[in-house]
Design goal:
This is TIGR00375 family protein. It contains 14 helices and 17 strands. The chain has helices spanning 22-32, 45-54, 112-123, 140-150, 178-182, 200-204, 239-248, 279-284, 300-307, 328-336, 343-356, 359-364, 368-375, 377-388; strands at 2-5, 36-38, 55-57, 63-65, 83-96, 99-109, 135-136, 155-158, 191-193, 213-215, 230-233, 252-257, 268-270, 275-277, 322-324, 392-394, 403-405.
Length: 409
């Protein structure tokens, strides 16, 4: 079983950590236990150069970091050598059907050569130098067409499809179905990314995407955020194996999910006014903030309710399983009473990896008795609550992350 995280960003994207270089991304993939990682930002010319310099070919269509660039800080489990798949995100802003559409798309390519070819085409449309996630006035259908012209093996996945401001089906600028977005090319779209603020069960309720594979990725803007969402894959280690899993579901065993309540756009509200509302409460308010009188930011749950034809709790036949996790540093921070940015929290996290294994092994597999012995009773209890799904959720809204409390069920 492989864990993959395909939607990430480099240091060349806006609002990302300077540590989003290949060396630190690879090191953190080892800490987490991720076997296949996206490169992110393949369109950025300088990042492309770094990828060429620091990665070498591994299995067909996959790459690995050259040994001379590998960081070993004494705490990183060396049980895996992560592979990289060539990936990137495009931000399309364009007019269609009398509305401004703002849609983010995840592209996955079979080689650096194909990535360069596609980049050359995109460079004629807009500036690829200023942002690792370029903003282009390019309709999604045209972007898909360009990908297909470049390579039949390219994968196009509408990214975090419910995010209010920048997604295919979010509340503000988006479409009600993939067909509205891609028209006659829709049959080339086989998967969608659920995003941090929704989980597969929420997506099963929506008829417009019932035939799509559901994948989950971290959209990490710093290396420590890798794997907050990921995919479980039983595939051969190759681009073909990856493509088959995403496009057909064969080999896609399930996903690892953030608690959707922790996502930044789960419920409706206004962050400035500290107003957080359920979809029902928003309807009662007529969509208007009771504090400032302006339009509320409609969240993911509300948008799904609008497009769903099945009740909450519906289980899709043949659906892939999923499991919800909380990042280990958040658990340690709650136990210690510090923030996740605390040096003491990071030191305890490092010790846990040294003594027990990768983060995913600690959260998912290692016996609780072993965790208790190395990390203390309350952390073991917290991980037990997560494994059983017994946590307290304070939902996120309007760009503010929610909180998951794990120490008391």
């Amino acid at each position: 079983m492989f864990i993959s995280d395909l939607h990430i960003h480099s240091k060349f994207s806006r609002a990302t950590s300077k540590d989003c270089d290949l060396e630190h991304l690879e090191m953190w993939a080892r800490k987490k236990g991720i076997q296949i990682l996206g490169t992110g930002d393949f369109t950025h010319p300088v990042w492309q150069e770094e990828i060429r310099e620091k990665l070498e070919s591994a299995e067909d269509g996959l790459y690995r970091l050259k040994k001379e660039y590998r960081i070993s800080d004494g705490f990183v489990p060396d049980t895996i050598t992560p592979r990289f798949a060539v990936t990137g995100e495009i931000s399309s802003i364009y007019k269609k059907g009398g509305k401004t559409r703002r849609v983010h798309s995840l592209l996955i390519l079979p080689s650096l050569e194909k990535a360069q070819k596609l980049s050359e085409k995109l460079e004629k449309i807009g500036n690829l130098h200023s942002d690792g996630r370029p903003i282009l006035g390019l309709p999604c259908k045209d972007l898909l067409e360009m990908l297909l012209e470049t390579t039949e093996k390219g994968i196009y996945v509408p990214a975090h499809i419910w995010t209010p401001h920048f997604s295919m089906m979010g509340a503000f600028s988006a479409f009600s179905s993939p067909e509205e977005c891609f028209e006659e090319l829709t049959h080339y779209i086989h998967a969608v990314e659920t995003g941090l603020s929704s989980d597969p069960a929420m997506n099963w309720r929506v008829p417009a995407i019932e035939k799509m594979q559901l994948i989950s990725n971290s959209d990490a803007h710093s290396p420590s955020k890798l794997g907050r969402e990921a995919n479980l894959m039983e595939i051969e280690m190759s681009y073909n194996g990856l493509e088959k899993a995403i496009q057909t579901g064969e080999g896609l065993s399930g996903t690892i999910e953030f608690y959707p309540e922790e996502g930044k756009y789960h419920l409706d509200g206004h962050r400035k006014c500290q107003v957080c509302l359920t979809p029902k409460q928003t309807k009662e308010q007529g969509g208007i903030c009771p504090v400032c009188g302006k339009k509320l930011t409609v969240g993911v749950l509300h948008r799904i309710e609008e497009l769903a034809d099945k009740e909450e709790g519906y289980i899709k036949e043949g659906a892939k399983p999923f499991e919800k996790l909380v990042p280990l540093m958040e658990i340690i921070a709650e136990d210690m009473g510090y923030s996740t940015a605390s040096k003491k929290v990071f030191e305890k996290y490092q010790q846990a990896l040294l003594k027990l294994g990768t983060e995913f092994e600690i959260l998912r597999e290692i016996p609780l008795e072993d965790i208790k012995r190395q990390m203390g009773e309350t952390i073991a209890e917290g991980i037990s609550h997560i494994r059983k799904g017994e946590v307290q959720c304070i939902s996120g809204f309007d760009g503010e992350y929610g909180k998951i409390k794990v120490m008391e069920p």
